[in-house]
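Write out structure tokens for CPBP family intramembrane metalloprotease.
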Amino acid sequence: MLKLSSKSDFDFRKTIFAFFLLYQVAMYVLYTQTTFLHDELKDSLALLHDANIWLFGVAVILLAPIIEEFIFRRVLFNFLLRINTVIAILISSFLWALVHFKTNLLVFFMLFTLGGILALTRIKSKSIRLPVLLHAINNALFLFVLKVFYI
């Protein structure tokens, strides 16, 4: 369990939560209220139509966050921390966003921002458990929006 002991830790937790919440609201608005992201969603929608929704949900909500956070916030991030903390945040966030990037630069920026939030959470918590949880929540909300608004 993440233990936060000082006032600055508590403020950090509120700040991360606020940024994560704002990110989720922005993504919800982008995916439900705009039409230019429909091309961005085509692959995800095709996968949802072709796959068993429960298996797809397990893969996206459980497996992907664990595997991706291990690769980007554990292995790569720890390697880059030897250079510099800011470099580690920027490069790991950039590469993570690039892996998810398809065509839209706005989505790339949003993913880069989420990657930064996950990296900062990784630094402060000194674990990948909280970034995995936030990543899983993000993916669950994304699947919910896809299911409710697009399928």
